[in-house]
């Protein structure tokens, strides 16, 4: 049985029921509204397709449910701000599901940077790419996914970050942080890392063994994110100190600007303009 899971919802009640039976979850719901109305639910994990995040997360918040919403939190900054405002109005917990943030490797990197172990950071590089063009939900533009892109971020004191993603080709899938005194490298699968190379020295951070077959690489690492959320709720926090809502807003503002420069427009962008015209 999934620890603490009290129910699962789907627009297809048979799929929800089958999933609940397979994982020994007590309840299943044939709609998200049914789940939102259940008083036994303390927090809802919203893991549906990106364009539906806003609508379903707002539904949960309106019903008084805390929310952990899968990345991206929404489709643009305006939508993110809607969610943040709704959570604060209801005095509820809200967090974006950036699971990488909570891996032991990520915590080790933050400690190394705080200790100035590699000096002043000058360049950060990250690659994420694999062959996924045969996956229908990833090649539909309306779902908010692009085939390939490189983003270059420039910071004061001649510092830069370069991020490349692709669904059409295999990339190194590693991240490198280059400082004036050394280098930190996160080898392959940098989004769910289990090792770290600091100035040539390897550090291992093995994951707990899975209790059942996995759908994705190292997905037992989701437990770190779930545990962080549990701790926040136990402390009565409304946002996570390690991933505050202001950071989700900042990330989305950067993505919005990148799309603007690339000329990529989502349907949700035009909806925002329509709202402004109505007001």
UniProtKB/TrEMBL annotation:
UniProt GO MF annotations: D-xylose 1-dehydrogenase (NADP+) activity; nucleotide binding; trans-1,2-dihydrobenzene-1,2-diol dehydrogenase activity
Coiled coil: none
EC number: 1.1.1.179, 1.3.1.20
Family annotation (InterPro entries): Gfo/Idh/MocA-like_OxRdtase_N (IPR000683), Gfo/Idh/MocA_domain (IPR050984), NAD(P)-bd_dom_sf (IPR036291)
Domain Gfo/Idh/MocA-like oxidoreductase N-terminal: 6-97
One Pfam family, short name: GFO_IDH_MocA
Keywords: Oxidoreductase
Entry-linked PANTHER family: OXIDOREDUCTASES, TRANS-1,2-DIHYDROBENZENE-1,2-DIOL DEHYDROGENASE
Name of the featured protein: Trans-1,2-dihydrobenzene-1,2-diol dehydrogenase
């Amino acid at each position: 049985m999934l620890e603490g899971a009290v129910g699962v919802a789907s627009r297809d009640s048979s799929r929800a029921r089958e999933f609940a039976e397979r994982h020994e979850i007590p309840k299943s719901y044939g709609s998200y509204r049914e789940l939102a109305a259940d008083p036994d639910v303390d927090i809802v994990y919203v893991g549906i397709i990106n364009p539906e995040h806003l609508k379903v997360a707002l539904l949960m918040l309106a019903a008084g449910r805390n929310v952990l919403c899968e990345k991206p939190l929404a489709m643009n900054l305006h939508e993110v701000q809607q969610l943040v405002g709704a959570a604060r109005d209801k005095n509820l917990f809200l967090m974006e599901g950036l699971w990488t943030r909570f891996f032991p490797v990520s915590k080790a990197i933050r400690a190394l940077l705080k200790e100035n172990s590699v000096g002043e950071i000058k360049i950060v590089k990250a690659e994420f790419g694999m062959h996924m063009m045969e996956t229908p939900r990833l090649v539909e533009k309306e779902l908010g996914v692009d085939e390939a892109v490189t983003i270059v971020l420039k910071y004061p004191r001649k510092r830069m970050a370069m991020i490349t993603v692709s669904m059409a080709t295999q990339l190194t899938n590693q991240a490198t942080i280059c400082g004036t005194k050394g280098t930190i490298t996160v080898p392959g699968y940098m989004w769910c890392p289990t090792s770290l190379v600091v100035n040539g020295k390897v550090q291992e951070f093995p994951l707990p063994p899975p209790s059942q077959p996995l759908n994705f690489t190292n997905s037992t690492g989701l437990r770190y994110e779930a545990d962080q959320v549990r701790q926040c709720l136990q402390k009565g926090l409304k946002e996570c100190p390690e991933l505050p809502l202001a950071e989700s807003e900042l990330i989305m503002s950067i993505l919005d600007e990148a799309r603007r420069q690339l000329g990529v427009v989502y349907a949700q962008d035009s909806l925002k303009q329509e709202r402004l015209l109505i007001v």
